[in-house]
Amino acid sequence: PPGRVRPCKTEPTEMFVQHGEQIDCRIDPAGDSDVFHFSGNTGDRVFIEVVAKPNQDSDFDPKLRLYAPDGTLLHPVPNEADIRQVDAQLPQTGTYTVRVYEIGGFAGNQLLPGDYAFTVTCLGGSCLPPSLFEDIDGDGEVNATDLCPSTPPEAEVDQNGCSQEEFCTAIDAT
Fold first, then answer.
1. 10-residue stretch averages of pLDDT, the chain, 174 residues long
2. pLDDT given for residue 73 in this prediction
3. Going by C-beta distance under 8 Å and a sequence separation of 6 or more, which residues neighbour residue 25?
4. Buried-state track 14-48, b at ≥16 Cβ within 10 A, e below 16
5. pLDDT of residue 156
6. How many Å apart are CA 119 and CA 115, to the nearest integer?
7. Do 34 and 100 contact (CB within 8 A), yes or no?
8. Can you give the C-alpha Rg of the chain in angstroms?
9. 91-95, long-range: CB within 8 Å, 24+ apart, which pairs?
10. 143: left (phi over 0), alpha (psi -120 to 50) or beta
11. CA 111 – CA 34 distance, rounded (Å)
């Protein structure tokens, strides 16, 4: 869920992330890399960022690489410097991969361990959740207050946006 912070899985780190959540992770030993996957659809716009955690006693400088579902390197493009963030429109539907690594810190060529935060944020497209003020099932009750957001079309609903069938199913489940 958006705004959630969770730790990395143990090494080797390879995990699926949701849009809007922050993953707190560590590159260790020096030279290690971590892999993250997220779902995307053609035309979605995402912002991906890796940030070194403050108060580290090093020049730790994490970078990222973004790969399309077919394995094509999308960012950095050839001859582009290593990057910490990407604002990208996704070219295809599927599972994207991001590799986070350290290239030698601000001090030069020495690979360094360190802590970082990783996020993938949806900026536009089908990855955005429906607006709370929309009515996705068309029953006259906005999403923010609709207790049954998938009521069948043309169903008669109560003040909670639930049909008689959905109301009875909820009661039977208790």
1. 71 83 84 89 95 74 92 80 88 94 64 85 83 67 73 78 68 50
2. 92
3. 7, 8, 13, 34, 100, 115, 116, 117, 118
4. eeebebebbbebbbeeeebbbebbbbbeeebbbeb
5. 82
6. 14
7. yes
8. 21
9. 91/42, 92/42, 92/68, 93/40, 93/41, 93/42, 93/69, 94/39, 94/40, 94/68, 94/69, 94/70, 95/37, 95/38, 95/39, 95/40, 95/69
10. alpha
11. 15
Helix, strand, or coil (residue 163)? strand
Do strands 14-16 and 33-40 pair parallel, antiparallel, or not at all (unpaired)? parallel
Q: Quick check: 62 and 44 in contact, CB under 8 A? A: no
Supply the pLDDT for residue 108.
54
pTM value? 0.69
Amino acid letter, residue 30: A
Please name the residue that has the structure tokens 């049909």.
Answer: 163
